[in-house]
Amino acid sequence: MVKGSLTVVGTGIKQLAQMTLESKAHIEQADKVLHVVADPVSEAWIEELNPSAESMQDLYEQGKARFEIYLQMVERILDPVRRGMRVCAVFYGHPGVFVYPSHEAIRRARSEGFSATMLPGVSAEDCLFADLGFDPSKVGCQQFEATHFLVCNRKPDIFSYLILWQVGVVGDLTHNTERKSVHKERSRVLQDALAEYYGSEHPAILYEAAQYPICEPMIVNTTISQLAEQKMTGITTLVLPPKLEVVPDRQVIRRLKVELGSKQPA
User: Which of 76, 86, 92, 207 is catalytic?
Assistant: First the structure.
């Protein structure tokens, strides 16, 4: 009996346009394809590539805890692997970014002796750097999931960029298709926490990557004091520019024997 295997791939953020050739080949060659994608067109395209393709969207139930849904996905992915099939699991965006089932399915598959691999995909972070036009290597960049940032009392580095993911669902751990925007009271908790470090009038950018090649990204320039009044969704990301400019340590510069020239262009 042929031993089962698992390959996890991503579709990229923009519908179909960011799917890698390597990922496409794995979808085509799999014995079984399971997917969670963002739109009917991508779903139809995957099912055209491989008739065995099956959506896992039916696991999403209104009000159900997201973690419970993810565990059910893991079991659905692993079932055909255990039956000796070459399985390809397809997720929207990058399959390793905000996709608990992909990591857990790979972990469990390997622990049971199966071959399991993840292929990279274009993530919302990749789109963000391109659309907002800043280089994270310039002054540094830190990232947190918004609820984690608050609950775990994380301290931001105000000398670098701060990216907070899922600000539109802060404090909500359930699947809720009827959610129009983050509850204002929860948004104010985030607003107050950020104002403590940056001040209420510090610039803030709300961002959503374009999901189709013909669309533009959503970019809203606002301030921390206005966050609770802004419309946000489950895919809204918050970006805060640095509050202070970094100052090089002269003693370290001397020890490294580095010569700093004129200030580099932004």
Answer: 92
Residue 66 is among the residues annotated as catalytic for this protein:
yes
59, part of any domain: yes
CATH of the domain at 61: 3.40.1010.10
**What pTM did the predictor assign?**
0.86
- What is the Cα–Cα distance from 15 to 39, expressed in whole angstroms? 8
Q: Is residue 228 part of a domain?
A: yes
Domain for residue 259, yes or no? no
Question: How many angstroms separate the CA atoms of 89 and 32, rounded?
Answer: 8
Active-site option among 70, 100, 197, 212: 70
- Strands of 120-182 (E only): list them: 141-145, 161-165
Give which of 159, 155, 184 is closest to 171, Cα–Cα.
184
Domain extent for 204: 124-240
At 43-65, the pLDDT tens digits run 999 999 999 999 999 998 888 88
| Residue 138, CA distances (Å) to 118, 135, 159, 255 in order | 29, 6, 11, 22
Side-chain-facing half-sphere of 225: CA atoms under 13 Å: 4
Distance CA 131, CA 105 (A): 32
Write out pLDDT tens, residues 114-172.
999 999 999 999 999 999 999 999 999 999 999 999 999 999 999 999 999 999 989 87
Rounded CA Rg of the chain: 21
Q: Which of 66, 108, 154, 188 is catalytic?
A: 66
